[in-house]
C-alpha cells in the first residue's frame, strides 16, 4: 500500500475548490431522511477537469447543487479559493456564485421559453452590471451566430443548440469553476461529441476549471483529468482517468467499466461483478454501502465502513478488499 490519509489531498496543483466531509440529506417522512451525500471529500486543482460518475441516485447531482449551495449542505465544507461558501449568506453568497457557474442536464427546460437568446445570455450581466460587452462574444464562442441566433427563442433550437446557449449564459460572467451536471445525457450521441469538444475548447480558451458529472464512465474518462466514483452517497474510488480504466481497484468501479460496450475493457461480465438493485438511501446498509451487491463482500464489510486510502500515485479507494492493493 502506498499510504493512507484523507481523500481530498492532491499531490500537486493550485487547489481552487476544496470539498471536505460534505453531507446532504432530506426529510423522507415518518421521521426518516434520505442520505443523499454522506461525507464526500475532494479537491479540484485550477485548470483541471474532475469527473464524478455513478449510477442514478448515487448523489452526484446532489453534490453539484451543494457546491452551489442550492441548497446548502447540512454539514461539511466547500471552499472556493479559500472562501468558505457554507458560511456566506445573502449578497456575499450571490457575489461568489459569479465565480462558480452551473450547466444543467436538460438544456431546454433550463432556458426561459419566452425570452430571446440574447436576453437569456445577457440576464447575468444585467443583474450584476458587468459583462454586457461579452454577450455577443459568448454566443459566438459556443458556435452560434450572434446576429441571427440571438433574436430567436429556445423552442426554435435543437437540444444541442440550447445547451450551447446554456454554456454561453454560464460563461458570460467569467466564472473560475464550471459545474457540468450531466450536460450531454439528454443529447444524441453525435451531438454529445460536439458539446464535449466545445467544452474542452472553451476550457482552454477561458482557463476554466471543470467539475464534470455523468453516469457514463466512458464519457467521463475521456474528458476528465481525474475521476471520482460515487455509490449511494459515498466515494468509492478516486484516480486519474487512465489509471481508473487500467487498474480499477473498487468492485463497483470494475462493474461500471464492465458495463461499457465493446467488451467491458477485458473485465468479466458486469453481472458477475455486481448484483441486484441499489438499496434505499433512506436505510443504507451498515459498513460498506456496496456490500449487498458485491460478490467479494466479507464479514468485515458489514462490520465497518471502509475509509479512503491511497494505493498508488493519486489513486485512492474505499474498500476492505480492493483489487490489486497490497
TrEMBL record:
PROSITE patterns registered for this protein in UniProt: ABC_TRANSPORTER_1, ABC_TRANSPORTER_2
GO molecular function terms attached to this record: ATP binding
Q: What SMART domains does UniProt report for this protein, alphabetically?
A: AAA
* InterPro entries for the chain: AAA+_ATPase (IPR003593), ABC_transp_ATP-bind (IPR050319), ABC_transporter-like_ATP-bd (IPR003439), ABC_transporter-like_CS (IPR017871), Oligopep_ABC_C (IPR013563), P-loop_NTPase (IPR027417)
The record's section on Gene3D superfamilies has: P-loop containing nucleotide triphosphate hydrolases
Q: Does the keyword ATP-binding apply?
A: yes
Q: Does the keyword Nucleotide-binding apply?
A: yes
Record keywords, A-Z: ATP-binding, Nucleotide-binding, Transport
User: Which Pfam family is one of this chain's hits?
Assistant: oligo_HPY
Pinpoint the ABC transporter domain residues. 17-257
Q: Which family does it belong to?
A: Belongs to the ABC transporter superfamily.
Q: What is this protein called?
A: ABC transporter ATP-binding protein
The organism encoding this protein is Planomonospora corallina
* Top-level taxonomy: Bacteria, Bacillati, Actinomycetota, Actinomycetes, Streptosporangiales
